[in-house]
Amino acid sequence: MAAENISGKSVGGYQLLERIGEGGTATVYKAEHPELGTCAVKILKESLASNETGVKRFLREAGYGDRVIHPSVVKTHSFGEDGDLYYLSLEWADGVPLNKYLNKTGRVPPKVASKIVTQLAGALNAAHEVGIIHRDLKPENIMYDPETQVAKLLDFGIARDEEADPAERLTKAGFFVGTLQYVAPEALSGELVGASADIYSLAKITYHMLSAENPHDGRSPRQLFQQLLTAEPTPLNQIVKGTKFPVALEEAVMKALSRSPSDRQSTVIQFAEDIENSLTGGANGSSDGFMGTIKGMFSKKQK
User: Which position has the higher pLDDT, 201 or 22?
Assistant: First the structure.
């Protein structure tokens, strides 16, 4: 059942203009504030407002978002309770959710994908530096403006604080959190994951941006779950017939999609750098595939 539409109401000093979206826990409104201007305001659904865990998750999201400061993270303005409503006010980000953009355009050029990855890596790194693991990185949680090529990360609803007491976790042990299509294999056991899980999810998004396909082809949740645990992802250069990416680009993506966290890049920034270098020829990367390899061989002989 859709949540009640409270457009026109003032909540926490924000005038709700129109409902623009709805998720599992909250309804999102475009709103106006006398000082901040246009904002996005999330209102916790009524069914969760009386649920202690639901309220804790909502306020935790607000608190985590408030701690992660970066140009590529949607800024948290304020949060609190107004009457019987819990609200969270966010920066208004132009554009559309990345999943809607990709559904419309299909594959994006590697250089555009690299620019998006670089922005998201910066956002995730800012989170990791303050001990926050996003855990739900997916195109739906990324706002993208194709005109400016600006990407912004949002939704820390199921993020975790590495420094928090594991006993205070809001998810039962043995249950994984995240979206199956993008979640890291190590999360499937329900164990607490680290920054490497975000690297894996970003690599899944990168793979999809480049190919409009997914590295695992499970047709049901059961099949996909099993593939994530036991099957190797389809190499990037085998997924789209007639399309070949630079070898270094494929290697960077597939390294980040390793089932073992220790086999991935050490940081999300390193992953973004590997992607960029694979397209520019920097740091031993090659932007021109076979010819780049040949040039490298000759340059070594001349040393």
Answer: 201
What domain range includes position 102? 96-291
Long-range Cβ pairs for the range 184-193 (8 Å, 24+): 184/261, 185/228, 185/229, 185/259, 186/261, 187/135, 188/225, 188/228, 188/229, 192/160, 192/166, 193/133, 193/135, 193/160
Query: Do the domain assignments include residue 61?
Result: yes
For residues 151 and 275, membership in a common domain is answered with: yes
* CB 216 within 8 Å of CB 231: yes
pLDDT digits (tens, 9 = 90+) for 10-34: 999 999 999 998 887 899 999 999 9
Residue that is last in its domain, among 91, 119, 134: 91
Out of 45, 71, 91, a domain closes at 91
For this structure, is 136 an active site residue? yes
- How far is 179 from 255, CA to CA, in rounded Å? 21
Neighbouring CB atoms inside 10 A of 294's CB total 12
Assess contact for 60 and 170: CB atoms under 8 A: yes
Q: What is the rounded distance in angstroms from the CA atom of residue 34 to the CA atom of residue 24?
A: 29
Same domain, 169 and 186: yes
Which pLDDT score is estimated for 66?
Answer: 83
Q: Three-state DSSP class for 150?
A: strand
- Is the alpha carbon torsion for 97, 100, 104, 105 positive or negative? positive
pLDDT > 70? residue 285: no
Nearest to 228 by CA among 203, 210, 252: 203
Given a contact cutoff of 8 angstroms between Cβ atoms, the answer to whether 134 and 153 are in contact is: yes
Catalytic residue among 66, 94, 136, 263: 136
Do residue 121 and residue 266 come from a single domain?
yes
